[in-house]
Design goal:
520 residues; alpha/beta; Glutaredoxin; Rossmann fold; Ubiquitin-like (UB roll); 4 domains; 5-stranded mixed β-sheet; 22 helices; 16 strands; globular; binds flavin mononucleotide; binds iron/sulfur cluster
Amino acid sequence: MSTPAPHRVYVPGDSGALSVGAGQVAQAIQSEAARSGLALDLIRNGSRGLYWLEPLVEVETAAGRVAYGPVRAEDVPDLFAAGFLAGQPHRLAQGLTAAIPYLAGQERLTFARMGLGDPLSLEDYSANGGLAGLERAIGLSPDQIVQELTASGLRGRGGAAFPTGIKWAKVRETAADRKYVVCNADEGDSGTFSDRMLMEGDPYCLIEGMAIAALAVGADQGYIYTRSEYPHACRTLGLAIERARAAGLLGPDILGSGHAFDLELRMGAGAYICGEETALLESLEGRPGLVRSKPPLPAVCGLFGRPTLVNNVISLASVPIILSKGAAFYRDYGVGRSHGTLPFQLAGNIRRGGLVEKAFGLTLGDLLYDYGGGSASGRPIRAVQVGGPLGAYVPESRFDVPLDYDAYARMGAMIGHGGIVAFDDRVDMALMARHAMAFCAQESCGKCTPCRIGSRRGVEVIDRIIGNRERAKNLALLESLCDTLRHGSLCALGGMAPDPVQSALRHFPEDFGIAPDPKR
Ligand SMILES: Cc1cc2nc3c(=O)[nH]c(=O)nc-3n(C[C@H](O)[C@H](O)[C@H](O)COP(=O)(O)O)c2cc1C
Ligand code: SF4
């Protein structure tokens, strides 16, 4: 008599899922199966990004993967009793995972493999479309790879949205004895987690993207710079790099191409400024994270004085699918000059927080209500900070503006790394403006005066406005200070700190006592 195939169960090993008990749930499932004498194949997959349902447990059935969540360790005996291993109904059942509307409505290109298999299994990676991009790239010339990237319309996902193809071409054409590829995995923006999710849930995708970048620009060494607050991502990436090396995906002859490329992982201490590319390079070289003056651009003179390609995790992780499916496939997603998809991250006061990868062109309203389900508190959403701590606050009247780099720039906002942080109608926007200035003062690297000193004075001026001390005079002073920060700062930390402050003033003047409060 043949032994029945073990039941296949998936419990995410992602740190977001672990933070709400996925580890204990996995243990409880193992124990319950052992107690019942059931053979189990328990896979610790990446998170699907439906964070409000974590820990999201999935079971393989003949009809497809069935999801249950949010599961607590105490729910496990009950799930076994209900027959969840066969996908049977239960109060935590969410139906077929692929049919959950939050997931079914997405356009997952960069995150296509997320949650499907064991993040460290190269077999799972290849079985789900991995390595096809690198294999194609090996058959192209470096210039052809750069042309493909340029034609895809990909723009940097780290914040500045600079065209990736132009940057690659610059590193490619700069002659040097050595070049580097550096992945910016610092991910310091508030409300963002897509880099971390990708590193934990699909690390080979980043490695593949970096290997393609190395072929294109002529680099033989790469670094991934991440932060000590991401211990799970570091562990997973470290193991993935070792396995990729053992499998010949990294090393002296990547996939038998004759090209050498190897990778090292570096951890920063979590300073926000170390996400700025030149401060990051300083930190990688072992010095404090002080911003470098530009020019020279890192593409010409970067790490250890050599031409260096610095790209964000999501930019690099989007490369394999562009190469495997072709530039036109990717370019066809999106609107205007915003091509492809962006993994938006819903955070803050939102009922269904998580990752939503969609083509550019949908609106904040679509994300907040169709996906996010409105605020977690059930109160009206009043303001949303888009694009991290330097992003503008968007009021409800602008929730219908398409998420497109240019449309957002026209309204004085930015999409940045796709972080969406929602606030309900109890938020005090004057305090949020103060917080933005205080953040700048706290995180300033101190190299230039407008940011180092101006941000501190900014906090004091906002305090005087809030306290109604010579309000008109201090409002004029704040405007002038913002102007100095915007035009006199060496980098975008000081240069963009005025954006949240001035957007709060513009859209919520009643919170500063300079307009009647409609609620009173
Ligand atoms: C203060 C500051 C913090 C930044 N933090 C990050 C970060 O955490 N991750 C990131 O990818 N880019 C960050 N950037 C943008 C980088 O300087 C750079 O533009 C980016 O790494 C380039 O990659 P991309 O073209 O793929 O976006 C930051 C910029 C500034 C000014
Ligand atoms: S703007 Fe601020 S963070 Fe940027 S270089 Fe100047 S002091 Fe440093």
